[in-house]
Amino acid sequence: MTMTLRLLLLLGLCQKTVSEGPPQSPESPDVLGFELPAVNYETETADSFTPGPIGALFRMVQVFLRVVQPAAFPEDILRKIIQRKFDFSADYEKPESVVLTLKVIHYELGILICAVLGLLFVILMPLVGLCFCACRCCHRCGGDMHQRQKRNGTFLRKYYAVSLLVIGVFISIGIIFGFVANHHLRTQIQKTRKLVDNNFKDLRTFLNETPSQISFAVSQYNTTKKKAFSDLDNIKSLLGGRIHQQLRPKVIPVLNDIKAMAEAIRDTKDALVKLNNILEELKMSSARLSTVLSNVKMDLEQSLGDPVCSTPAAEAVCNSIRATLSQLDDNINLSQLPSLDKEIDNVQHVLQTDLSSLAQEGYKSFNDIPEMMQNQTADMVSGIKNTLNAIGLNVETINEKIYFQDKMSDLLGHISYAESYIRHLLPKLEEYYVCWWLGGLVVCCLLTLIMVFYYLGLLCGTVGYDRNATPTTRGCVSNTGGIFLMVGVGVSFLFCWILMITVVLTFIVGGNVEKLVCEPYQNKKLFQILDTPYLLNENWKYYLSGMIFDKPDINLTFKHVYSDCKDNKSIYSALKLENKYNISEHFDIEEYTGHINSSLDNMNMEVNNVVLLDAAGKKNLRDFGHSGVDRIDYDAYLAETAKMPTKVDLLTFADDLDEKANKLPSGNLKWSLTTSAQRLRKTHHGEVVPLASSLKSLHQSIQELQQQSSGLGVKVTNIISSLDAAQDFITNNLSPVIAQESKNYRNTIVGYFEHYMQWVKISIKERIAACKPVATALDSAVDIFLCNYITKPMNLYWFGIGLATLFLLPAIIFAVKLAKYYRRMDSEDVYDDVETIPMKNMQKGTFGFHRHQTTQLL
């Protein structure tokens, strides 16, 4: 009982420690129907999170980051920084700090180079724009509204236009990336509240369901107890029946043979009496037939003494009839067959003992074994039931003894506090998101505005360009296109440095978060750093085991805990709680089942009165074996009964006699012969036919009796030998059989509780409080929210905006160059032959020309 209370307390303690994981139903129900209730969670795991088509763009940005920063994850650097062995503010002069600084710079070299280039862009572009503006004000850098005509002018115009168009396409792609990233960030941020709600709902569900699952596991004791009670109530069939089945192959065949022999004795007696009666009747019938035939024979002899037979005509007929008279005689001699009275008396003596009743007593004695088992174990069964009921009373009051609700309320309180804190931060996050979204939208719109100017400039310039017009006579549409291009250049100089500042800041933050947080979190290198011995606490080798067990030497790592929770294992297994609460030691099956084992082992079941057949029954069998039934001269009986009653067929003889009589003249002789023939026919139908039928029936009965009694002595001997063997088997092996089956029965009863205890152990170790919601919550915070919701869209954003901003530089150059071909000039080159000759038509030779500045050519 002490061990039972210890079990209950341990279960209650586990409720407090395993409340960090959700219960999970076992993979398959066991034989007693143990299956933990399933718990459904709503949060989508990081493994099932898919960004959609934009994921291809995210991967493209990741490839770019790997090119920019190909160095491996700086585990050593982060370890030293976490251990506070490096302080940038005070320890920069230490050699170790210098080396570490160089390692940090080496790792961040790619990002630093890109950031420096970006900063140079930020610094130089406003200066270049200022100088460009001042230079144009001084009529330089294209500020002079005069265009020299060149032989390749048309080619250059087309080249500048196509180049600007291609660059514009690249800039547009970058702008699209920016818009897509900004919209995706907005969409994902809107899912944050639902993500937070689902995670906290799952954590509450798992904390609330864990006590109910433990209560369910404890309540399954009643199922086990009911099954044990059922088997105890059926001890007659389960224990006694098994013993009965063990003995049955040896006992039942012998009793069946004895029963069959008892029936054979009765059948033999009936057959002997029947045969003997038939034989007596046949002897009388045979004597009557013999008398009738003798009388007919004498009558025929007297008739053949008639004087007519001496006449020559009748002499031959009479002689032939006289020659056949010897055939009128009976063919069997049943009187020589001995009577069966002696054998009948012997069998009748055997039947004075009712062997069938003795066999039934053997059946009853054998079949009473299960009943004897039940009677002898009644007190033991009652004691075991009392023990199980006493344990059950303690199990039923487990909730009142442990007060697990009070213990769970602390954890629920911490979760509620965390939830309220996060919910308080969510509005601020949404405000920051709105600012970010608006800022990103403004940046994208600025770039879009620039590209609108460039595209309008290209469109108007291309559509309004007249190849026959001189630079000073270009149309309004073409001039507007040039103006659009220059406006785009001005806006580019005005805002490109602001765009690059945005790109640099987001690039430094997003790139480092992706490389230092997201990637190492996914490949679990981040956990490897946290699992570094003596990292978080210089006195603890393993931080988690030191914090949980106050035993820092236990190998319990963040990676192990996260992986186990990710695989939906229980907190007990994930946190290795066996180092504090060893379930195997507390669940000592032998102590729980000790009383049951001792009660079943002390069963003193004796079955000493199983007698299959007493001495009178054996003597009865031997007397039947010596009754002489098997020694009857069956061959003589069969040979005699196989004969026909007469030597000749009387009907044939009568027909022949009539035929011969018809050859005689009419008179007394003929009439006498005809009368004798009729008497023979009558004798055949009245005597011969019934006698022949009785002989045939007697012959068959003798054959059956011969077959039945064949080897009777051997059969009896074999039955007695089998009977002695079965009786010896019961005498010598009944106790071992009872002991073995009692052990099996005990193992069955105890096995229920062993199975229950084992199931509880496995449930606590592997299934109850499965901590997947904890891993899911961590994945939601880092992998989904930080990386997928924020960092990846941010990286795509700076990638697109950076691409567009970088291509603004060549776009400015080509736009400035191209604007000269679209804008209306103040002056133009004048040729000596006063002809406007297109550059593409210029042939060999050098034409002299001068600048006409006196008047403005329209």
UniProtKB/TrEMBL annotation:
Keyword line: Glycoprotein, Membrane, Signal, Transmembrane, Transmembrane helix
Record field: transmembrane: 109-138, 159-181, 436-461, 482-509, 796-816
Topological category with respect to the lipid bilayer: Multi-pass membrane protein
Keyword Oxidoreductase (UniProt): no
Entry's localization field: Cell projection, Microvillus membrane
GO molecular function, one term: cholesterol binding
GO terms (BP aspect): camera-type eye photoreceptor cell differentiation; photoreceptor cell maintenance
InterPro entries for the chain: Prominin
Residues making up the signal peptide according to the UniProt record: 1-19
GO CC, alphabetical: apical plasma membrane; cell surface; cilium; microvillus membrane; prominosome
Similarity-based family: Belongs to the prominin family.
Entry protein name: Prominin 1
Species of origin: Molossus molossus
